[in-house]
Amino acid sequence: GPDDELKQLADTFDSMLGRLEAGFERQAGFVSNASHELRTPLSVIRTEADVTLADEADDPEALRRSLAVVREAGRRSERLIDALLTLAQVDRNDRPRANVDLAQLVRELAHDTDLDGLRVELHLARAQVVGDRELLRTMTANLVDNAVRHNTPDGWIEIRTESAGGEARLEIS
Length: 173
Fold this sequence. Notes:
Elements lengths: L4 H50 L5 H29 L9 E4 H11 L6 E6 L3 E4 L1 H17 L6 E9 L2 E6 L1
Parallel strand pairs: 2-4
Antiparallel strand pairs: 1-3, 4-5
């Protein structure tokens, strides 16, 4: 139609509906991610409780091991909830963006994270990205936590950052 006030109103209304639809899609994605991620530690807790309750032996050491597994699953749930709450608050259009060096983030996390006695090799070259510092920190912390959790008792972790061709790279092995 003609470029008049009615067309401008319709365009504004269409834009508003588009933002609402995107918000509903983000919410549905969040709920899906939350339910998927929280099932794992809850399943561990339930299974550990079932196995312990089914065992009729009164072995205090077995009970201690079982409680340690339940405690770790509880800690994992807490980390997941914190990460999911961060995701729930994300609206990519209004989050602060800044220049962030992934190498510096890794140094901070390696210092702050319980690496469970694993051998850690850091190969950190400057890797600048533009983004939300807290979200990048959460992402990196999740990757490091996964590397620790899914490792072996005498294992190792290698973390590398680099920048080439205008792209930054974070690699965790």
